[in-house]
Write a structure and sequence with these properties.
Elements lengths: L2 H4 L9 E4 L2 E4 L20 H8 L4 H11 L10 H6 L3 E5 L7 E4 L5 E6 L11 E6 L3 E7 L5 E9 L6 E9 L5 E5 L1
Antiparallel strand pairs: 1-2, 3-4, 4-5, 5-6, 6-7, 7-8, 8-9, 9-10
Helix pairs in contact: 2-3
Amino acid sequence: MSMNEVNGVSNLQNFNSVDNNIIRKKTDIDNVPVAKAGASSKKVTDAIIEQALEQSSGHKAVNLLLSNSPIGLGDQLNKEDIQNAGYTMLTTAFHPGAPVIYKSGDGSTITVYNGKGTPEMGEDKRKIVYQTERFTQEMFYDENGRLTNGKMIIKDKIAGFTEQQYDFIMGADNHIESVIR
């Protein structure tokens, strides 16, 4: 009898589970060896975050963060764009609308949602989420892959509460129309 069987954990739980006709592949994002993930070509560092927090306007802060983000402005990135930015595909679930998660060597992740999932699982909007230890950037796209709006959240370095949030809407000319700080 194995240690897992003694603890009441079946060996099958370590691989796949089937729940309501949805197959999920179990993975642990934080335990992926860094050697398997590439070095990201662009990243939002703590220094960039601190510079953004010091900006006099939300518009300037958002532009600074976007210029250093691997997602940036523009149309929705495809798999090749993300991999060329230094990210390696990590995992996906096997159900319609499941997100695809990519990870870089610095520990940041990019999660791509195609908008074909269920609202209950948060997979009903076409979006890309870039996340570091204290920064989350959500970019929302229309059915043609054009950026419509976004949200950036900066967490406090020590306590983890939301220190600043920026919501922005894109104009027709692919420029930021308005920023709510």
